[in-house]
């Protein structure tokens, strides 16, 4: 701008010179103003022009008069130049959108770098059909010459359809056109930036390369989906065989045409394979071909020859690829004939991958492809290893579960009755079914009692697994011990409750939980831990069978918890005395076929440590009735509440009134067993039998020693009528001692009863609760040998207590055999007996 001002000033100062040539006077003034020396030369006059007088000399006053004019002119020029510069800057900012030159340069460099780096061809074509710009990718795809820019598109030698489209300028979206040996996806968009002449922008993509990339992406996506599906479909059960089948089902046909799976034999037993152990495998699954066409069928044991791909993978723990089985001599070593059949079936490629979890090889998964599919490649190894590893984790979980389940089932079955004892009171059948998810604490028992009676027991420990099974064993042993004391059902359950409370306390201390009070075992003890208290009746305070309404002081922090039903059947009277602790009551089938569920008073489950007493119920059953005891797993599960289950049980029991106990068990399970039991099921069916009244004899005995002889004589006559004369001597001796003790030390009423069952049972009852004790008498003692003699001649003897006193009983073998003599010979005792005065 400064240069422009200087030029204008120069023109301004030169302007008077031009005028001076026309007006000598002005020329002189201009010369003076410009600083030039005045011309003092005298010009010669023209011959025809009169002579003029010489102009007067310029003065300083005249120069000063012209100076403002010059300043005004300069100022005008400055304004004109400034306006022009402002106009030019405004037009420039309008064209560049306000971007400064440096920023414009930076953007140009970036855009140029991006334009030539993208993997997509870009063309800019002017409104006249000439190519204005082409990036590097466009030049490569169209094979453009170096001087292509500024040339008409029609002269670039493109395919006719592509050339026509580019020259027409019409919009296009992903039109696939031929360009040499490529198929290009062409997009054309018209553009007219900021009012400039219209043009088009063209983008080009090579669809052949896109198809390759899309194919790879599709394969990767499909394999990711297969891995996802494998996570959902493999390991749905805790069965190793089923898990192997699920692996084969997932891989065929999405990864392989045929899949075979083999597991090491220890895995099938739940054991962990060890190094150096036998490498025998058992085939567990074949998928993709008929099992008959496979070299080895499901269930066959395989030992792979060293050097084969399978043996190599098993030893190394890494997958092995055989791209072409036709050229693999190592693979043929296993079975030349069998491998040839595989080749004849079209199988061409193999990947064998070890099933490995936690660094332990559990088996092999073999993936096969036929000639119709692409052969396995190196990149398939990683996928096969990933897929097999997921299945291996599921197999290992199933193996560990199999081990624990087998251990628990073995323990529980060893704790349950292996055979039922012989007795004449009941015909008994039973069933025990462990849950699919793991064994629980259900148990049952049949215990012969003195007096030809039989105790029936059904119980359920809360929880599953080894702990529940072990606790069940402890409780079953305790029930046997308490039954040996011949306790009534309510007292026995009270003692059992104390035992469970002690178990909980000990385990709470061991776990560091303390022994504080709270609500724990009660809420989970009934019905196998589902929080229900079974049976009918009312809690103290009017809460009818509602576990949530149990007073807080009745609960305690429990770990074990259990339920139990204990019943005693007397075949002489046909009476059943039973009590239940949180357990479902029994069902009774009368001989006519009617089914009922007797009302049983509600008592809390074992382990609550409550002060609520256990109550008993008595039922009188006619001969041929069936008593059905069961655990809650039979009538209740996730899909069925207990009310529905009881109705189903009633229906199953009502049909077939003449069934045997075995047939009844089968019919009940067929009608009620769920497909996948979530809890153990114990079922006990007992058909009642009455002892023949002719085999029962009873006498009242007065409190007089002289009454011993007549009663003893009557007993001997009864033995003779029963054909038991062979044991009359020992029976006479036993009765003499027992009756004498009852008269001497007991109280009325005194009774003697003989029962002729599998053994001869002698019972002497009196009205006192004092029990005699066996002791060893000295040689000088006149007494103290009676019970010793009883113990020597009876197979069993004992005392049981009744509400009115006690009963001392003995059992003798019917064949007259004696027990093995003790430390003191029985003959010696008899010799001493002769010195005792006869009663």
Write the layout of secondary structure elements.
Elements: H1 2-20, H2 24-33, H3 60-96, H4 101-117, E1 121-125, E2 131-134, H5 136-142, H6 160-168, E3 172-179, E4 182-191, E5 199-206, H7 207-233, H8 240-251, E6 258-264, H9 265-268, E7 281-287, E8 301-302, H10 309-316, E9 320-322, H11 329-332, H12 336-344, E10 347-357, E11 360-370, H13 378-415, E12 426-433, E13 440-448, E14 454-464, H14 466-484, H15 489-510, H16 521-525, E15 562-570, E16 575-581, E17 587-589, E18 595-596, E19 617-620, E20 626-630, H17 632-635, H18 642-654, H19 661-672, E21 681-688, E22 696-701, H20 708-721, H21 728-745, E23 750-756, E24 760-766, H22 786-793, E25 796-802, E26 805-812, H23 826-833
Antiparallel strand pairs: 1-2, 1-5, 3-4, 4-5, 6-7, 6-11, 7-8, 9-10, 10-11, 12-21, 13-14, 14-15, 15-16, 16-19, 17-18, 17-20, 20-21, 22-23, 23-24, 24-26, 25-26
Helix pairs in contact: 1-2, 1-3, 7-8, 7-13, 8-13, 13-14, 14-15, 18-19, 20-21, 21-22
Domain GAF: 235-405
Biased composition (Basic and acidic residues): 49-61
GO molecular function, one term: phosphatase activity
Structure commentary:
By secondary structure, the chain is of the alpha+beta class. The protein folds into four domains: 108-213, PAS domain (Beta-Lactamase, 2-Layer Sandwich), CATH 3.30.450; 234-406, Beta-Lactamase (2-Layer Sandwich), CATH 3.30.450.40; 420-508 and 561-688, Phosphatase 2c, domain 1, CATH 3.60.40.10; 694-821, 2-Layer Sandwich (Heat Shock Protein 90). Helices cover 39% and strands 21% of the residues. The chain is built from 23 helices and 26 strands. The strands form five sheets. The chain has a six-stranded antiparallel beta sheet with strand order 8-7-6-11-10-9, with helices on both faces. Strands 2-1-5-4-3 form a five-stranded antiparallel beta sheet. A hairpin with a 2-residue loop joins strand 3 (172-179) and strand 4. Helix 21 (728-745) packs antiparallel against helix 22. It is elongated, with a radius of gyration of 57 Å. The termini are far apart.
